[in-house]
Amino acid sequence: MSALQILWFVLIGILFAGFFFLEGFDFGVGMAVKTLAKDDHERDALIGSIGPNWDANEVWLITAGGAMFAAMPIWYAGLFSGFYLPLFLILIALIFRGVSFEFRAMAKFNKAKNIWEWATAIGSFVAPFLFGMIFTALVKGMPVDANFNIRGHFFDFVNLFSIVGGVAVVLMSYIHGLNFIRLKVDGDIRYRAAKVAKVLYPVLLAGEVVFAILLFIYTDFFQNKPVITVILLAVIVLATVVSYIATLKDKEILSFIATGINLVALVTLLFVGLFPRVIVANNPAHSVLIKDASSSPYTLTIMTWIVVSILPIVLAYQIWSYYVFRKRLTVGQAGGSH
């Protein structure tokens, strides 16, 4: 296994971590449109808070998929064929969620507006839930044949561990979104977001304990990498505790950063547990390894130079975009379209 192969495995992990940090609060805000907002003015403010950046945040996912396709095509082929149905449902959820912002803004009747608001909320729930299920099923182990094809059945995808993983990602994203609302929206909803978050933190902590137990039962993380696994689980729990305390003390920036670290630490845990594999098979002999899944050294070299050239520009643009739209929105003065 070469340094370039390891580098691209790490880069793909970073792209997924960036996606969950940024799109995680978009998902949370989307769910809050129907679970937290009480009227059209509040819903306008919530959608307006993510309006300028949600589509740019999704580019991290597209880039992760593109990097996987180019750098590790066997991983891409195995993942996208083996998990075709849940990934297709994620695509549908993201499409409906994306168009819902525009169609809601153009809706002339309350009934139509309500339909698109539900599309926003349901799409924002389904996508992180299915992502959580896919990643937990991936590290648990799947039936893989000698040609690296996943031959999974229903309960290989849907089981206690994958459901807990899906719920955990949804809850993390929702709380992350509530903390973003506290940062970006002014009005009564800002304080209701804090109130709801305070109730949900103990639930999340309990869920993290359950997730850690199931991780021990269903994966080989503790057997193969006990120290780093325990450290990353501790980081996840500690970040949740810090965010909880920061919310109780009304420290909005710290609570938001801590929930973001929570999601990044979870992605890191899953990628560290995967290494040096990209797909875990029930039969260890059929697990797909990084060295077997990667493109040629020439391809990886060219891709690395492209990333070095373009990535700083893309990051600078996205940082500039967040700076331009840094102003807090006031309920009653925010538009619902991006």
From TrEMBL:
Superkingdom of origin: Bacteria
InterPro entries attached to this UniProt entry: Cyt-d_oxidase_su2
Bilayer disposition of the protein: Multi-pass membrane protein
Subcellular localization: Cell membrane
Pfam families: Cyt_bd_oxida_II
Transmembrane segments: 6-25, 83-103, 115-137, 157-178, 199-221, 227-246, 253-278, 298-320
Alphabetically ordered keywords of this record: Cell membrane, Electron transport, Heme, Iron, Membrane, Metal-binding, Transmembrane, Transmembrane helix, Transport
UniProt similarity note: Belongs to the cytochrome ubiquinol oxidase subunit 2 family.
Protein name: Cytochrome bd-I ubiquinol oxidase subunit 2
Source species of the chain: Periweissella fabaria
